[in-house]
Amino acid sequence: MTWDLFTPFEPTASDPWDAAKALHLARRAGFGATASEAEELVALGPEGAVERFVGYSPEDAALEADLAARGGALVDFTVERGVGPVDPLRRWWLYRMVHGGQPLQEKLVLLWHDHFACQESKVVRQPMLLTQNKTFRGLGGGPFRALLGAVARDAAMLHFLDNRVSTKEAPNENWARELLELFALGVDQYTQRDVVELARVFTGWTTADQDGYRFEFDPALHDADDKVFFGAPLAGRAGAAGIEEGDEALDRITQHPECARFVATKLLGWFATHDLPAEPSVLPAIDALAEVVRAEDLDVQSALRVLFRSRWFYAPERRFAMLRNPVEYVVAAARALGVQNADRAGLERATQRMGMQLLEPPSVGGWEHGAAWAGPGTAAARLEVALALSELPHAARRTVGRATIDLAALGAESGDGAAAALVDALLARVCPDLLPSGVLALDSERRAALLDFARGALARAPRELEPAKRRRIAVRAVLHVLLALPEVALA
Amino acid sequence: MSSHLSRRELLQRAAALGALPAWLAPFARAAAHADDTDPPEFADRCVVIVQLHGGNDGLNTLAPVADDLYHRARPSLAIRPAEGLALDEHNRWHPSLVHLARRYAEGGVAALQGVGYPAPNLSHFTSLDIWHSASVTTPLPATGWLGRLADTTRRGEYPPLTLLALGHDVAPHALRAARGLPVAVPRLEDAAITVAPEGAAMDEAEARRAALVALERGAASASPAAARLTAGVRAARQVALDLARAADFTPRVEWPKDNLARDLELVVRVIEKRLPSRFFFVSQAGYDTHALQRAPHADLLRVLDGALHAFLSELAARGLSDRVLVMTMSDFGRRVRQNGFGDRAGTDHGAASMQLLLGAGIVPGLHGAPPDLAQLDEHGNLRHTVDFRAVYAGVIQSWLGADPEPVLGPGFTPHAALRSLA
Question: Domain with B400 in it: what CATH number?
Answer without folding.
Answer: 3.40.720
